[in-house]
Amino acid sequence: MGEQRTWQHRTVWNRTAAVGVLFGSLVFLGCSSKEEVVIPPASAEQVTRLDSAQGKALIDSPAKVLVVDVRPRGEYMSGHLVGAQSIDSTDQAAWEFRTAELDKDLPTVVYCSTAACSENAAGMLIGAGFTQVYDLGGIADWDPSELSVDKPG
């Protein structure tokens, strides 16, 4: 009887040790110096808000992404994200013309000077039939270490 009890204790101890080693390995392997940025999915019915890290990850991804700067042309010319298209959201005729010629099914990142302006323009893009709209907010809210504007020389 004592021999079987010792065997059971060893089995319990071995299982406990195995679980501990497995858990420790998962914790160790799960630790990384570089955090993965999660980009939430977009939908055709609503705008998806991104922070500057998520915006950078989406813009830098291998997928083709449309980046739209909705500030007036003068502000755009003073500095913008590389590759961003200028579509002034306050110029209705230009807005309708430019948005009509764009691929509405591409992931579309929109930004402005302020978060309120960007949010409004993102809603306008949804209304125009864009299916994957991401609101990057206002330039002033971005973390400059993650997103920076390209200033013409």
From TrEMBL:
Q: PROSITE patterns annotated for this entry? A: PROKAR_LIPOPROTEIN, RHODANESE_3
InterPro entries registered for this protein in UniProt: GlpE_sulfurtransferase (IPR050229), Rhodanese-like_dom (IPR001763), Rhodanese-like_dom_sf (IPR036873)
Coiled-coil spans are none
The chain positions of domain Rhodanese read: 61-151
UniProt-listed CDD domains: RHOD
Give the matching PANTHER family. Answer: FAD-DEPENDENT OXIDOREDUCTASE (PTHR43031), RHODANESE-RELATED SULFURTRANSFERASES (PTHR43031:SF18)
Protein name (record): Unannotated protein
Its lineage opens with: unclassified sequences, metagenomes, ecological metagenomes
